[in-house]
From TrEMBL:
Identification of the protein by name: DUF3817 domain-containing protein
Keyword Signal listed: no
Keywords annotated in UniProt: Cell membrane, Membrane, Transmembrane, Transmembrane helix
Subcellular location(s) of the protein: Cell membrane
Lineage start: Bacteria, Bacillati, Actinomycetota, Actinomycetes, Pseudonocardiales
Domain DUF3817: 2-64
InterPro entries assigned to the protein according to its UniProt record, in alphabetical order: DUF3817_TM
Principal location listed in the UniProt entry: membrane
Origin species: Pseudonocardia charpentierae
Regions that span the bilayer: 6-23, 30-51, 57-77
Amino acid sequence: MRLLRIAAGTEAVTLLVLLLNLATVHAPGVAAVVGPVHGAAYLTAIVAVLLHDGAPWAARWWAALPGVGGLVAIRLLRPASASPP
């Protein structure tokens, strides 16, 4: 679960950086560095959800959505009785 949290957070932050870069200066160097990090975090979040025991299908589908899917999957994987961290 810790790996999923790190990957989902990294995925969301790097997507924001990529979009801000695209909307402002569009520096190719930023995209060249942040793009692969975003891709790796995206794939890591998907694999982490798929390997999670008892993950519901909804969490698996949401994990495949780029940007926020990993964060939504974390919410779906959290037990109903667990309090937020």
